[in-house]
Every structure is written in structure tokens, then in C-alpha cells.
């Protein structure tokens, strides 16, 4: 099996200026676990559910305990 056999061709994107909440909402609405970040149709990066958990939710919880 090759990557092309399991890849998705219709990629859902988000702009770099969008909020984390907007990105999470878009993931939930589309039943996906990652978004490609684009600017002027060029890919800049990717944000995943794991990024949200580790870099936003867990980091926020740690900060509020201190």
C-alpha cells in the first residue's frame, strides 16, 4: 500500500491569524484531527489535536496551578 492509497485530496485549511478555538472548532465540525495552515494558498505548517492538547490545554492547566 502506498501513501496515495490512504491520503485525502480535499485538505481543510486555516490561516495563521485564526484563533486556536477557531481551528479546534473547524476540526470538530469536519471530524478531522489536523489542519494545514496556509497563507496565500501556500502551506506554512500543520496543527493537530495533539498540538492543542499539549501546547494549549496542558500548558494552560499548568500555568493556573502555579
Give the SSE layout.
Elements: E1 13-14, H1 20-30, E2 34-39, E3 42-48, H2 49-65
Parallel strand pairs: 1-2
Antiparallel strand pairs: 2-3
Helix content: 40-55%
Flag low-confidence runs.
none
* Helix and strand sequence: EHEEH
Major sheet attributes = 3 strands, mixed
Describe the structure.
It is a single chain. This protein has 2 helices and 3 strands. It has a 3-stranded mixed β-sheet. It has one domain: CBS-domain, CATH 3.10.580. It is α+β, with helices and mostly antiparallel strands and 66 residues long. The model has no long low-confidence stretch (mean pLDDT 92). Helices cover 42% and strands 23% of the residues.
In short:
With 66 residues, this protein is of the alpha+beta class. 42% of the residues lie in helices and 23% in strands. The longest helix has 17 residues, at 49-65.
Features:
66 residues; alpha+beta; CBS-domain; 2 helices; 3 strands; 42% helix; 23% strand
Amino acid at each position: 500500500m502506498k501513501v496515495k492509497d490512504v491520503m485525502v485530496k480535499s485538505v481543510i485549511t486555516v490561516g495563521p491569524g485564526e484563533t486556536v478555538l477557531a481551528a479546534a472548532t473547524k476540526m470538530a465540525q469536519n471530524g478531522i484531527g489536523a489542519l494545514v495552515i496556509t497563507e496565500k494558498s501556500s502551506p506554512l505548517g500543520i496543527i493537530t489535536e495533539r498540538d492543542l492538547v499539549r501546547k494549549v490545554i496542558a500548558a494552560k492547566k499548568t500555568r493556573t496551578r502555579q
